[in-house]
Write the structure tokens for this entry.
Amino acid sequence: MKHSLELALGVALATLFMTAPAFAYLDAGSVSMALQVVIGTIASALVVAKVYLSRITGFFRRGAPASADVQGEAEKQ
Amino acid sequence: MFDSGSFRDPSGRILRQDGKILRAIFDQGVANYAAARDAGIYRRAVSRGRLVDLRETDTSLLVGIDPALRVVLEHPRLPFVCYPYEWTFSGLKTAALLHLDLHLELLADGFTLSDATAYNVQFEGTQPIFIDHLSIVPYEDGALWAGQRQFAMQFLNPLILWAKRGVAPNTWYRGNVEGIAPEDLTKLLGWREKASFTVLAHVVAQSWTYKRGVQAGLNAKTNIARKLSKPAFISILKSLRDYIAGLSYPGEKTIWSDYAGRNSYNDERRAAKHEFVAELARSSEPQMIFDLGCNTGDFTVTALENGAKSAVGFDFDFGALEQAFSRFSKSGQPVLPLWLDATNPSPSQGWASKERKSLGERADADALLALAVIHHLAIARNVPLDMAVDWLMNLAPVGIIEFPSKSDSMVQQLLSARTDIFPDYTEEAFLAHVRARGAIRAEKRLGENGRLLIRYDRRK
């Protein structure tokens, strides 16, 4: 499940670069910077998604709500 | 005067003076240094075991070195300076995790790292430690991660190559001291490895943008100011941390890991060999002992238990080194396992061929163990016996060399697939070469007609 999520977001990232070569006019360094912002956004989404995923799987596994730590982590994002 | 590897950051330089390790901080670096010091950043990182200790000392120690000198720090001396191309898989992995953990802690305190070079990580035993205080700088809102490509080249990409393709990156890394470029690595990865956010983001996409940048060349337009939010910055580091923590050493069967079980000596001989090593450690109490051909570290342990204070274990088999790293991580004993091809040790290289020092320049051992090594140099690699003895004895003033004669089963194995062109490989010749360079303090034969152990002392 976790890997499927990563894969889906990875494919989304790859698709973004295949269909939108909007950074082509920038030099290598700045393109990398622009890319970093995109990576940061996806990484943030992944972190949030993982936290919620663990809450859901935790709920079904233990039949109880996720721990306060996990909840706190999700709220910070 | 200045350390030849510390020139890249104009805010400071490292110097060795009268056995002390000093850091000169210049005008350009003093504001960031004071900010980190006053915010308690250094103290916290030192107390967590992440950062090498520091103490402000008198600037008059370095009077006249540079008019821009503002602060002088003194640092404890590290047992041995090593480079990432000498690290084991676990060494590289723990160094990468240290870098990320430190960076995450710094961000939480409003600071960041100005670069991501792996050469800023050293080891105390198997514990990685960060050594560059001046690359800790105040974080500015929206700042990008300046070290992203460097982190990929020097930590992430070599680990991916190793874990996913089973190829040790050390020789490549040594050839290109800046590490492995994303545009090179991406060609070697299959779709399965690429089907991961980390690989797509830090290898494939980086490679793609690099190529686009190169193609744009002179037509490239000016930069657009970009901002990376702090939560996004932290998420990038955390996702890298998760990915790297999940990488493991490809489980190949090692050449030497079962050596203890199939070599040519029995328990009694092994015990005698341990006792001979123990005598060396007791008589010399070395601050640092080199164990050349350490395998999984059995004899290193004996040396430590009998008076050696710290050790570096060298071997060319990565599997054995992995086991040694795991063993000493668990025991906490001060042993650093490093990769070494004794016939081609790390050279002096980098800028002006001096930035990274050769093994010989860094070797400052007080004692040497060279057990079951010399036949690999002299017979497997055709190094004349006198040259092999010379090299070994130059590594430390006292030590043990084990000499297996041609009748030894391991030597027989080496000779089985080749013509014996080594008429000079004899015990008599070996002893003569040792005596020409020092005294023989003790000898021990392991069983009847077995291997000969000698304890040399080149201080005469």
